[in-house]
Amino acid sequence: MPDSIDPCDKEEMEPLRFPGRGVEGLEASVRQLIAESEQQARLLDSLSAAPDDSALPYASIAPGFAPGRPGPAAPEPRFILTLDGTAFEAELDALSDWVHDFLLPTYGAEVSTATPWCQQWAEHLEVVGWLHALWMAYQQHTDPEAGPSGPAVWHRDFLTHTMAAIRAPGGPLSACMTSLDRPSHRILPSPHGPAPTPGDEQLAASGVAA
């Protein structure tokens, strides 16, 4: 049986050597990678956190609102005859712009005894109610969410009926202008007495005589 080999009898084994910078270099590279990973993790945490609006340049212009972020919900539209005071006046101004800039130039038929009109229509409270309802329906049915048939529905269900009602020979404007050459304005009395004009109720509530 051959004698066992004694490691001491052989030449001393050379230590393992890593190419390049050796163990110290590898440890430094690992430490650098760990540091970079921690830095990236902190960056991701900061990006996922909610932004601080107070630090943004537009915060002083519109608090709580930022470009690209949804702002506060718009108030629900209200029928004009349920408003009063400055809210009524502001809504009437907006309605007048729509009537004079869009409705009359587009759908204002010729003034005649069959289709009377009044240049002071805003003083006829009934007409204000009709036209405001028509305007609200117009905004709803011309919205993209109403679909391609929305405007056709507005014409069929709202425009034709409204204009026929307020411009009928016996309608609320029948005592007003029947010819452009003869402007006229008169509010017909109701069964309860003279019809109120916009602002009368506010004056009555404040105790000021009209």
TrEMBL record:
InterPro entries: DUF4913. Residues 185-210 are annotated as: Disordered. It comes from the Bacteria. It comes from Actinacidiphila rubida. This is DUF4913 domain-containing protein.
